[in-house]
Amino acid sequence: MDRERAMAMVEGVLKHLIDGADEWPLSMVDEVYVFGSFARGALQPGDVDLLVEFHGDDPRWDELVIEGLSYGRDPHRVLRAAMVGRKRGVQFLFNARRRVDFDLTLLWQRGDDLATALTRLHAIAADPNAGRAERHAMLPQFEGLDHRMPRSVREYLIEGIEAGAITVERLTLQDRDIDHPLVDKHVHSRWSPASPLHRAGRAVFANLLERGLDPAQLHLHGRDVDNIVTPYFAGFSLRYLRSMARCLTEFEGKEWLEVVNPTRTKDLDALRILPGSPAALERLSRVRL
Question: Residues in domain Polymerase nucleotidyl transferase (predicted)?
């Protein structure tokens, strides 16, 4: 999108935020930062990247988190909807300020009025020479996923690759019609059809079935599908990735499939992690992620 349109979108976010700052769910928001190509002054930024810091000490938020754990729904959807509605073009990170390794520009913090926030926004000068920021701990497999993968995760995987403990390949999982009673039972019992985890789960099963693998041997996002012996592992949004090396050693895993960002409509980008040297993998399993 052009910079003028991106600027108008951020102005709209700030107006919605300040107008509703005393009403739930926006009453939870403490700070908003902008980062990425727009913050560097690019004339044709991609999506505008905003980082939102909020406090979740509210029973209504607790209910959304529990609902998310039960049905695979993203509790942050209420914050996105309150700030942008159904408009596209803004990407959010939540409560990640202490984990990111790129520059952030403060737009708003609780107590600021709209004029103050807009002054900060318009102080970001356009720069025809602005490009992508220098990124650390990057591999081609991580391209386009780096905003979803903290630097510590990227460094951990690179350490494993360089030590010969694992190999990592990038793939995009495909939506497929699956007629398999075990798959239907497992996916439908865990996630609603509208959940991005429902779609991701079916795509993982489809990938296994296309390769002639038994879905009963899958451990999917923290739970065995059927068998106690599960040499195949899959997870979503890096939630269980800290267990990857242990699963590939102690449980004789043959692969780990990580869907980095489950989504209802966009590509289901995944990392397929395969075990390498047993000794190196054992050492990696002792590295804290």
Answer: 23-64
pLDDT of residue 45: 87
Decide which of 94, 122, 150 is a domain's last residue.
122
* Local structure of residue 266 (DSSP, 8 states): S
Cα-trace Rg, the chain: 21
Per-10-residue mean pLDDT of the chain, 289 residues long, equals 93 96 96 93 88 93 79 80 89 86 92 97 92 72 87 91 96 90 90 92 96 95 91 95 94 95 93 96 89
pTM, 2 dp: 0.63
Judge whether 129 lies within some domain: no
CA 251 – CA 253 distance, rounded (Å): 5
Q: Could you give the number of structural domains in the chain?
A: 2
Question: Domain containing 57: what range?
Answer: 3-122
Closest CA to 130 of 35, 52, 14: 35
Pairing of strands 90-94, 48-54: parallel
**Strand 166-173 to 218-220 pairing:** unpaired
Helix H or strand E encompassing 234: strand 232-236
Query: What is the model's pLDDT at position 132?
Result: 57
Largest CA distance in the chain: 60
Sequence-distant (6+) residues with CB within 8 A of 127 are 40, 41, 42, 43
Same domain flag for 75 and 170: no
Write out the two tokens for 272: 């397929």
Q: How much is the pLDDT for 228? A: 84
* Same domain as 279, residue 181: yes
Instruction: Give SS3 for 70.
Output: helix
In a domain, 232, yes or no: yes
